[in-house]
Amino acid sequence: MVKAIVGANWGDEGKGKITDVLASGSDMVIRFQGGANAGHTIINDYGKFALHQLPSGVFHQNIINIIGNGVAFSVENFVKEMKELKDRGVPEPNIIISDRAQIVMPYHVAFDCYEEERLGKNSFGSTKSGIAPFYSDKYSKIGFQINELYDDPDSLKAKISHALEIKNATLKNLYNKPPITEEEVFDKLMEYKEQLASYVGDAFTVVHKALKEGKTILLEGQLGSLKDTDFGIYPMVTSSNTIAGYGAVGAGIPPYEIKEIVTVVKAYSSAVGAGEFVSEIFGDEADELRRRGGDGGEFGATTGRPRRMGWLDLVATRYGCMVQGATQVAFTVLDVLGYLDEIPVCVGYELDGEVIDYFPSTTKLKGIKNYDELPKECRDYIEFAEKEIGVPIKMVSNGPSRNDIIYR
Ligand code: GDP
Question: Which long-range contacts (CB under 8 A, 24 or more apart) does 243-249 make?
């Protein structure tokens, strides 16, 4: 049975934590899109981790973690994250990197920086992880699948030389930067080859075997619906599809196997980068929510940038859930709103704008395990959001740690 965990909004909805919670009952966790450009925060017995690329099942020794073919795979980031787990006492996880996944080349990161520099004030606010150049090259067929590292060196060299013709022309004529040599790229790829050797495998076959055996598989999405290349706020989107449907492609599974789509909705909104954000708030009101938000403030897990803040946008959330094909909602970071007496909610872009609900001035929301023990105002907020979204909220997250979860 395949279950997807994805975001309904701009990302940072708390997917990492929900994946960590659901991972304990799963056999396999698969990352199917995106790269090291966003982070999942997970708090468990080993401490607090910001995972950028590793699947969230890495803390459970009985889980097979797969980096799917749809991922923009950064070897450097992978090596760094694996080292961090080791240094912090996490036992060696079980990881398979799809031999069909493509590699973020060192020059992808450089191109990302050069392009943002060229765009100046019109830049996208990229995390400069090389993701857009990576996917451009993938679809231009000058990308490198991991299996090519293990091919014969002459074929690899020929391919590098072909890719560099285009890259060097752009470097010289558009960016006015020095060219890249075939040797430096080849040497780097040989370094990668060695670093990855014990993790690369035929993930497709492993996944299909697991499906056949009736194993429980989690597809772990990055970012959210509104950052999807096709359905998001284009062009202020990410360069891969963030929707559960893409899981079929990026993990290599039949689409009809995805039975559950747990869509994570945060009890308020936050976004990084430019683009439409109707329920955005500013000034002191935003500062206070940002400071109290998430776990230790709403600042980018990868960049540390302050996130843009806003109230729950039910119009965007309803759309975000439709785009995902949500079968249930996990409603997160509810505890943070405990400081407010009134919580504005955006219910319509062309209506009067805001609906006010009432909420207790309490921080006691954390630690509650049963839905009925939540204050009535809090239950009203959840039930109101549920009605407006039109998808059952089956999980409520009222704190950052694994145990702060209420099932309905
Ligand atoms: P993701 O990319 O969707 O996984 O989102 P993040 O990793 O950015 O998670 C957002 C932040 O919220 C992280 O710092 C989490 O630890 C934190 N978090 C997740 N769920 C809850 C919750 O229910 N309450 C609080 N206070 N923090 C949460």
Answer: 243/6, 243/323, 243/324, 243/325, 244/4, 244/6, 244/219, 244/324, 244/325, 245/325, 246/32, 246/33, 246/70, 247/2, 247/4, 247/30, 247/32, 247/33, 247/219, 247/221, 249/32, 249/70
